[in-house]
Automatic annotation (TrEMBL):
Name this polypeptide is given: Protein SKIP34
Source organism superkingdom: Eukaryota
Ranges in coiled-coil conformation: 30-64
Keyword terms, alphabetized: Coiled coil
Length: 125
């Protein structure tokens, strides 16, 4: 039986082959890691840009709210001043309403009491 030429496999040739394979695998792993690192750095750059944009918008909103609060305070003060100018002080306005309501109640009570009776329920003579 003729099996052809046989190369002798020595431990050194096996070690060299394995070293070449390991070296190629290491190169592939390093290239893969570099690619993943580049992707991560790109995502990080996008996240930082987004954070900067959101921070800018937040500061803009804070300024807007401050302006609105100032405007609200001004308008409330002007409204109060106009009310006081038209109707006088609050106590005076409340006194007017109390007087008005008492007169209305008195008029209503007068209409409900039959002719000839006093407000205390006694018959007038």
């Amino acid at each position: 039986m003729c099996y052809g030429h046989r190369r002798s496999v020595s431990p050194d040739s096996f070690a060299q082959s394995r070293a070449r394979r390991t070296e190629n695998e290491n190169v592939l792993v390093v290239e893969d890691l570099r690619g993943r690192l580049a992707e991560t750095e790109a995502r990080l750059a996008r996240a930082r840009a987004r954070e900067a944009e959101l921070s800018r918008r937040l500061e803009e909103m804070k300024r807007f709210v401050s302006v609105m609060e100032i405007l609200e305070t001004y308008l409330k003060r002007r409204f109060r001043e106009q009310q006081e100018h038209l109707f006088g002080s609050e106590e005076k306005w409340m006194s007017y309403w109390a007087f008005y309501l008492m007169n209305k109640l008195h008029n209503m009570a007068s209409q409900l009491i039959p002719f000839g009776l006093s407000l205390k329920g006694e018959v007038a003579v």
